[in-house]
Amino acid sequence: MTMWKIGRDVGNMYHWNGRLLPVEDLCALAREHDIITVVDGAQTFAQMPLSFRKLDCDIFVTSLHKWLGAPVATAC
What predicted TM-score, i.e. pTM, was given to this entire model? Predict the structure, then answer.
């Protein structure tokens, strides 16, 4: 039998109004149900204090060119 894990991509800030989403709570809830979380931090990385350990997400991604002056198409 193959076991599949479900994943979910969550942004932690709306780009059009700056509203923060409860990503820590969403990640905790997902972890309780064995759901993999991918946090899209493109709008918040390098713009506000951020603790990856506190978020407790499985994967965090961002665009380095937006805020750090890196070449376009670089991400981590």
Answer: 0.71
